[in-house]
Amino acid sequence: MHRDLKQSIIETCLQLESMGYIIGTYGNVSARVPEGIIVTPSRVDYHSLTPDDMVTVDVNGKRIDGERLPSSEADVHRLILNKRLDLNAVVHTHSLYATTASCLQKTIPVIVEEQSQVIGGPIHCSPYTPAGQHEKLGAVVADALGESNAVLLANHGVVACGRSLEEAIFTNLVAERVAQMYLIASAVAPPVVIPPEYVANECERWLYQYGTAADRA
User: Fold this and answer.
1) Per-residue pLDDT for 3 more than 90?
2) Chain-centre distance of CA 21, in angstroms?
3) Which residues are identified as catalytic?
4) Which domain covers residue 32, as residue numbers?
């Protein structure tokens, strides 16, 4: 069931690892399906993954397909996708600059146009949640995400979302670059923020009007 999508999730994991955003199995990926979400399993090396290793859970978190345990952070993916019906894919990574920024436990305001377009708003930081409190982590992350497409997990990492796996990867790339720029700029002075009305316009244009997005419509 959904074998091609499961393979695409594996390829997404390998791509994120090649980018240096995932180390070992510190990271996970999910995609929406009619039954719920398909998510990577817990602590399985991505180079050995096969579609049969993928796990499907329903909207309540019950495993309905697959023999392995789902990622320990499956609740993060599930609760985000339950809340944000405009999204279909979620990636969680420990990319260097975004994870560094998460240790500040601060919101990254909208400082560059690519952030306004792709992320659609500030990159908030969820409250710190100790390891093992998976459902609580999922709830605070989904809440902190809000209407943006990326969120920091305090002292932990970053979650990026999209309408597809490809878009979620790109959102993660943008979030990492924005975090890097924010840290560099903040060493000189507080960054100047783009006004909210321009952020909304740019996001709308990128999602529905810009280039191939308009062509598909």
Assistant:
1) yes
2) 12
3) 73
4) 3-216
